[in-house]
Amino acid sequence: AVAGKKRAGEQNPAGGEAWVRATGMSSSTTSGQGDDAPGLVCVVDCVHGMVDALSCVRWNKHQGAVVELSEHGIVVTVEESGCLQAKVYLKTELFAEYDYGAEGRPRFGLSLGLLVDCLNMFTVPGFASPVEIRYPGPDMQLLLRSVGSPDACIHAEIRTRIPDTVAWDYHFEHAGNTPVTFTVKSAILKESIDDLEWPGSSIQIHFHPDPPSVIFKGEGHGDLEIEFSYYANTDLLIAFQCDQELSYR
Predict the structure, then answer these.
(1) Which family does it belong to (predicted)?
(2) Residue 8 pLDDT > 50
């Protein structure tokens, strides 16, 4: 018997619609079952880690995302104003089961807010319920289903869309075409950018290969410089690759 039914996100600008059902096990569980085998069927024992990771890149209420599936895992990409891109990598090791049978790498768009909200419906304080994720459904939906209880089951369907644009990787490259990259803890980077953002100010990024360091410099009513040195604290500046001095504003 259907215990509840909910519709959410009807007017979501990011493009998305979600249906949620709570059913007794006597009901048919045809969600995602069809003549064609789905491209992906995976099970995650606890969705808390996935929710935390996706929430980190949910910058606004109507945030859209592009999801890419592969034999290596799931990649969720979000973009902001065509100048900022963030990716969440959900590797196969995260899942208790990961059955990938699609050709190529399917890619689709959805509302990140709806995905996070639906995943949260499978979380209960003090109890971790395994969740099965399938794609595609009969109408190209992303299907979620709880599989941990013998007495009840929660189904969720999220309508997907064709991505407006194909996501790409941003590479900061100089004429030699050698990538310039560095990895720093996100909390420290955010704190540094917040300190440098003054009204009417600009931020410069300087890369120094010897000694390896990244310097952020804010210029406005005053000057402020923040340096990340690789040798001084490898726990802070985790990785660094640059073979000549470079600056970006």
Answers:
(1) Belongs to the rad1 family.
(2) no
